[in-house]
Amino acid sequence: MHSALAQFLSIPKDVEDNKVSMMTKLTMPVLAVGAVKAFGANVAIIMHNAADNVSEVLIPNSGHWLMDEQPAATIAAVRDFLDRKPR
Question: Which positions ≥6 away from 53 have C-beta within 8 Å?
Fold first, then answer.
């Protein structure tokens, strides 16, 4: 259990690192993929804290494990994003 939970010891350092990283937002296109039955639109809301050019996709009938629950829809969303011309 100690090893499994040790990852949480880094959270205070992660918070500080993230504050520094978020001082400059990403300018490249970012895809925020949310599962309707999990985090949904919150994924994009959170990504707007880190990036200026965020595209949002919600995968229906899916929970946390998108690739297991809705692989075709998830792959289609990623392919569509990658095929777009840069804005």
Answer: 26, 27, 28, 29, 30, 87
Please tell me the predicted confidence (pLDDT) of residue 69.
96
Q: What confidence tier does 83 reach under pLDDT thresholds 50, 70, 90?
A: very high
First vs last Cα of the chain: how many Å apart?
A: 47
pTM over 0.70: yes
